[in-house]
Amino acid sequence: MKVIGITTTVPIEVLVAAGYRVIDLNNLFITSKDCSKYIDIAEKDGFPKSMCAWIKGIYGACMENNIKEVVGVVEGDCSNTKSLLEVFKSLGVKIYPFVYPVNHKFEDVKKCIDVFLKTFHVSLEDAEKVRQKLNKGRYFGRKIDALTVQGKATGFENHLYQVSFSDFNGNVDEFISVLGEKVLAIEKRKPEMKRIKLAYIGVPPMTGDLYDFVERCGARVIYNEVQREFAFPRFDTAKDLYEQYYDYTYPYNLEFRLQEIKKQIKEREIDGVIHYTQAFCYRAIDDIVIKKQLNIPLLTIEGDKANILDARTKIRIEAFLDMLSDAKED
Question: Against a cut of 0.85, is the pTM above it?
Fold first, then answer.
């Protein structure tokens, strides 16, 4: 089977219909036993120190795993992806740019998806057939999200399984089967409610140990913003591929994202928010607006190359959770 890498969530239905095995280069990078080697590869090849570790990790993962075709989102995600694709192209990798239009008009989203369909010689009908199959998996993703709110699934499980929907772990049938089994196993657990209910917003973290750490401190992340969007939780309200990707909040304007964030904070009765930003990422500037818009205690933490929390960040998280705990007692 042909293999194609992606730099973030794209209309995977089109790629699967075209006969590809889809690999999210972010997941390939961060789940490696030695993810730092991918960053080292990029820096040895000339990528500057002052650049997002995700971009360098994506590059290293692509080179090390000999991936010859890549879809890169050049509008609506990382501002460095356009240049990254130029580097890939110079090295003989076949590139396919994809755009989430900044104006977020339905007709423009439709045009971008139509171009994507045409590029891979896939009909809308064939892509829709794949979408119906993938929606079986998305149903399980939504179940895991609900089980997290109920205190049965952990914050890390919520993160891990939802973030994996960008590429269905590179194997659609196997991933859907694993999800079904996981849901059955989690449903049998007794609820374990934590005192503090947290929301995590921003790009998925480099530091996956964040979730276990906050649970040891008596809290739990019960809402992962971007990861949940990767799983398309409103899949069954979209009548077609166009509506599904028009409704996807992450790549569009911050105001649109915040509407869903505010809704989930209210519905899940969130006590506090952790906003994760990545060093050297333009999205860190969003924090200015987010703090003004969210009327709830918020802690901003920044990640760089390390894939575990540093001591300073742990202290800041502990202090934040202590503050939230004290507030609940007042």
Answer: yes
